[in-house]
TrEMBL record:
Listed name of the protein: Glutathione S-transferase protein
Domain (GST C-terminal): residue spans on this chain: 91-213
Occurrences of domain GST N-terminal (ranges): 6-85
CDD domains: GST_C_Sigma_like, GST_N_Sigma_like
This protein's UniProt keywords: Transferase
Keyword Cell division: no
A molecular function (GO) term: glutathione transferase activity
Annotated GO biological process: glutathione metabolic process
């Protein structure tokens, strides 16, 4: 095996959340990275070091490049970890579709996680109502797109980075609301198949809650 060209350090909290999308990119490509997990107690001390005052952020080659924002990091890694695989899409159209599905899943992630972690009971009730109204509509729409592409991937005929985003988001939504996929059999099957990809199966088994489907 050739020597790894670049070094990577991911800074994120000691949770899955948004950082897990980035971790999964490295795991899928079998790329070594430093996983700097920040406790909530340590966050006030670490926050001034974060370029935009938030996590995740990725440090490449000891600071030669620092990238913030989850999807920006994922897009960079999709293009750079193994460029010959066109993990971000082989054409401009496929690349745009990857962005579209990644953004759509992250919108759903934000609605679900925002409701789950809201502290104010009045605001929480409103956010939970929005989530309960939104997730069936969005999952039904996404299932339609998945079926139109053959049912195995959202773009092209192979795993691309948007599929890893979809997998992470579906897993976290399932943790928030068990059996959330029971009325969406095509997405449910896609989710189980993605969890069992050879490149990530062991990582998922050892680091994620078991699927409820």
């Amino acid at each position: 095996m050739s020597k790894q060209k670049h070094s990577y350090t991911l800074h994120y909290f000691d949770t899955r959340g948004r950082g897990e999308l980035i971790r999964l990119m490295f795991v899928y490509h079998n790329v070594t990275f430093e996983d700097h997990r920040i406790s909530m107690d340590d966050w006030p001390t670490c926050k001034p070091e974060a370029p935009m005052g938030q996590v995740p952020y990725l440090v490449v080659d000891d600071g030669k490049l620092i990238i913030c924002q989850t999807l920006s990091i994922c897009r960079y890694l999709a293009k750079s970890l193994r460029p010959e695989d066109y993990f971000g899409g082989e054409t401009k159209s496929d690349s745009a579709k990857c962005d579209m599905y990644a953004d759509t899943f992250m919108d759903l992630f934000s609605i679900g996680v925002g409701a789950a972690h809201e502290k104010d009971p009045i605001i929480k009730e409103k956010k939970e109502t929005i989530f309960e109204n939104q997730y069936p509509v969005r999952l039904r729409m996404l299932e339609h797109h998945l079926k139109n592409n053959g049912g195995h991937h959202f773009v092209s005929r192979k795993v691309l980075w948007c599929d890893l985003v979809a997998l992470c988001v579906l897993s976290i939504l399932e943790e928030i609301k068990p059996n959330i996929l029971q009325d969406f059999p095509d997405i449910q099957l896609y989710y189980i198949n993605m969890r069992n990809l050879p490149e990530i199966k062991d990582y998922v088994k050892n680091n994620w809650p078991p699927a409820t489907v």
